[in-house]
Structures are given as C-alpha cells and as structure tokens.
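In response to the reviewer comment on reproducibility (Comment 2.3), we provide here a single inverse folding case reported in full, input and output, so that an independent group could reproduce the run without further information from us. The structure tokens appear first.
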C-alpha cells in the first residue's frame, strides 16, 4: 500500500464541513487532489460554489447547512447519505469563533459556540453510527483547538467547547472501534484564516506579534492543518483512534 500517494483517497466520498473558507476549504481541496469525491458543506452558498469550483477532479457536491444542534445535524447527515451513499470519512471543521469576557456571556452566545462545534459533532456521529452510513474502516475527524488545553481570557465558552470535543472523541472511538472506524480530533494553534483575521482586528499590532511569538514556528497556514486531516482520514492512520493530534507550531510546549 502506498500511503502518501496522490490517489490515496480515490474511490471514497468524504464530507467536509466549513468547506467554504479557511481550514475546511484547504482540507476539501487537498482531499480532492488525493482522489476523493468531496461533499463540501458550509453556510454561505456563494462562497461554497466558489470553493467547489476550485476542487480537482469530478463528482463533487455542495451542501448548504448551518449546523447548530445535534438533531438537525443528524437528520442532515442522514439525508446526505441517502443522496450520495456511504461516507468513507468526515472532517467537521465548521465552528464559530468567540472572544467574550464571561461577565458579558449570555446563553445565546454559549448556544452558538457549542452548537456549531460540539452539538453538531454529536449529531454527525449519531447519524454515522447508523447502519450503512459508513463502511468499516472509515474515519471521523473533528476540529478542536489548543484553547481546549490552554487558558486564555475571554475564551471560556470556546475553550469549553473544544475541551468537550477532545473528551467526545475518546468515547466515540470506543463505540466505533468494533467496526474499525477511527475517531480523532485536531487541536490547532493560530492559523491564518478569515476567522483569524477577524480576531486580529480586535487587537493591536503589538499584541498580535506577541501572540505569534508564542508559536515557536509562527502562525500556521490552512494547509498545515489540512495535511493532518488528510492523514487522519486516510489509510496511513489505520491504527490511530481516540486521540487529539496537536498541530500548533509549538504553542503548547511553551
């Protein structure tokens, strides 16, 4: 078996959420280059169409969705399976950024942060646990963050959501193991994405320089995380499950 071949993922259908920009888009592009048929999902139809047009190969599809709760996400994934067949892999990269002091945090913000990340992830997993939704040996990958392990002021809700993702994959790995379906997460550091740029506008140049200096290798690029996602979705990770892969440019080891 050639693990790093450009056609490693050929013949499989892979769902990528958050595919209209940033890490999700980079992951969709990389999977397509490796031969996958990609279902690119996102909130914005116009941006999603642009992302779809940039995918190598043929047979890809777009799926507009705003994932905010487990039931809705489960029903949506079931409909995708009915339309496109079983999924060989899923990368759930969708999510909402949030920096808000806890004294200003309201239930609506908590619901938004938890909904797009944790609740949607649970719904996706629930749908894929059903008969015929995934073949044996498939793979699920969820986006986490170094914020789930390292504290930062104003990120209580976001950190809680990502820490919950890390715990979730450990238990899901146990549930899916009888079918050799792997379940993992990726804890990313600061990556230059549109989300990152929006957050950067709220700080000073000096504060952003200091933040980048906390990453031994500087800020990352979307493809840095996409490469990790492609590995976890592909056959090279056949013996990796229940773990959170840290891809952070050295942030957590400081």
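Designed residues, in position order:
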């Amino acid at each position: 078996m050639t693990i790093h071949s450009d056609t490693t993922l050929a013949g499989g259908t892979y769902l990528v959420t958050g595919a209209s920009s940033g890490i999700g888009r980079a992951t969709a592009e990389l999977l397509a280059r490796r031969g996958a048929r990609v279902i690119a999902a996102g909130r914005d139809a116009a941006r999603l169409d642009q992302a779809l047009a940039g995918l190598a190969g043929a047979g890809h599809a777009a799926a507009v969705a705003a994932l905010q709760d487990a039931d809705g996400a489960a029903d949506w994934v079931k409909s995708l399976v009915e339309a496109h067949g079983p999924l060989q892999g899923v990368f759930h990269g969708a999510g909402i950024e949030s920096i808000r002091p806890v004294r200003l945090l309201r239930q609506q913000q908590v619901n938004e942060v938890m909904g797009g990340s944790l609740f949607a992830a649970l719904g996706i997993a629930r749908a894929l646990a059903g008969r015929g939704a995934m073949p044996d040996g498939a793979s699920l990958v969820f986006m986490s963050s170094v914020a789930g392990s390292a504290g930062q002021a104003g990120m209580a809700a976001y950190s809680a959501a990502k820490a919950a993702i890390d715990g979730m994959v450990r238990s899901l790995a146990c549930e899916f193991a009888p079918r050799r379906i792997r379940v993992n997460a990726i804890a990313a550091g600061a990556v230059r994405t549109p989300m990152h740029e929006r957050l950067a506008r709220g700080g000073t140049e000096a504060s952003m320089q200091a933040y980048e200096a906390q990453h031994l290798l500087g800020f990352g690029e979307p493809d840095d995380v996409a490469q990790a996602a492609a590995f976890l979705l592909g056959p090279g990770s056949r013996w990796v499950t229940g773990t959170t892969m840290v891809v952070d440019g050295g942030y957590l080891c400081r």
